[in-house]
Write a structure and sequence with these properties.
5-stranded mixed β-sheet; 12 helices; alpha/beta; Peroxisomal Thiolase, Chain A, domain 1
Length: 350
């Protein structure tokens, strides 16, 4: 049976570093308040006009492609995960294909937010296993800073997120005991609205609860894709019930990790390195404690980069590899939980 392997990885972080203290210039907050709730000390923000989600993805992809020993012309499929695309449409995949002068290959965009990279990795894995493609570029990239509410009103969301990109090249493995052992994908839309960006959108308030609808002018209900009132009332920014998200995450996160281990007759002690989505350091610490993992078995970098959503796992995995924490034969577990809600895991024998 064919397996797929990660043949090369790359990452890109913007040069602009914003500390927690820097954010106090825009909102009522403090370094202590942010660190206590999230573990974040600083994050990176892309240049306002000089960088986009796609340009950051290109930089990460160049490195991944070079490390895989191929050229952009060898890539035969692109899967691009992001919730902050350059355009509402078309997606970033075709922009990356164009700017990297690739052949007229297929490009797929994935909208699974924090779980986006793992969903994309799972799709790529299936394509490799069937023999359909041989060099798949899987990308996770985000430019959150362009769409956040940098005011006291929006601080609960805005202090969390950062910008960046990560990429991986998947290829067939010549050793079927190595590579991606399994992937596990789940979703539940029961609480979709507690972590969402409602507008602009075509929902016409169909799914909104009474409180959210009450914030809209009566004349706008069911009519507007975007309006001046939405701008005036800051209804174009993400919204999150952080406490509720935390409660669900700490249940689903460890469950999907254990699912991957059980599917391969393995135990948490077999994990060389767990790379969780960098949502909140407190969530990662909870998972670590529940699975009885040591500090050496978990990779966290949210302290430096914040939550980069679809980019967080490839950035963290690439960084761990560069640090020498990922070696041939190691068992690597990737896991994510995010808006939707969606959650996923992947188990890899490096």
């Amino acid at each position: 049976m064919l397996r797929s392997k990660i043949a090369g990885m790359g990452k890109y972080l913007p040069k602009n570093v914003f500390t927690n203290n820097d954010l106090t210039k825009f909102m009522e907050t403090s370094d202590e308040w942010i660190q206590e709730r999230t573990g974040i000390k600083e994050r990176r923000y892309a240049d306002r006009t000089g960088e986009t989600t796609t340009t950051m993805a290109i930089e990460a992809s160049k490195i991944a492609i070079e490390r895989a020993g191929i050229t952009p012309q060898d890539v035969d499929f692109i899967i691009f995960a992001t919730l902050s695309p350059d355009y509402f449409f078309p997606g970033c995949g075709v922009l990356l294909q164009r700017e990297m002068n690739m052949k007229e290959i297929g490009a797929m965009d994935v909208r699974n937010q924090c779980s986006g990279f793992l969903y994309a990795l799972s799709v790529a894995d299936q394509f490799i296993k069937t023999g359909m493609y041989k060099n798949i570029l899987v990308v996770g990239a985000e430019k959150h800073s362009f769409g956040l509410d940098f005011s006291t009103r929006g601080r609960n969301v805005s202090v969390i997120f950062g910008d960046g990109a990560g990429a991986a090249v998947l290829q067939p493995s010549e050793d079927n005991s190595r590579g991606i052992l399994s992937t596990h994908l789940h979703s539940s839309g029961a609480h979709a609205e507690i972590l969402a960006q409602y507008n602009p959108g075509t929902h016409a308030n169909h799914w909104m609860n009474e409180q959210v609808v009450a914030d809209f002018d009566e004349a706008e209900i069911g009519e507007m894709f975007m309006s001046h009132s939405m701008i005036d009332k800051a209804q174009l920014f993400p919204t999150m019930d952080g406490t509720s998200v935390f409660k669900i995450a700490v249940d689903k996160f460890p469950a999907v990790i254990l699912e991957a281990l059980q599917a391969n007759n393995l135990q948490p002690t077999d994990i060389k390195l767990l790379v969780p989505h960098q949502a909140n350091l407190r969530i990662s610490q909870f998972i670590q404690k529940k699975l009885r993992l040591t500090d050496d078995q978990v990779k966290n970098n949210i302290q430096k980069y914040g939550n980069t959503t679809a980019a967080s796992i490839p950035i963290a995995l690439c960084e761990a590899w560069e640090e020498g924490r990922v070696k041939d034969g190691d068992l690597i577990c990737l896991a994510a939980f995010g808006s939707g809600f969606t959650w996923a895991s992947a188990l890899i024998r490096w």
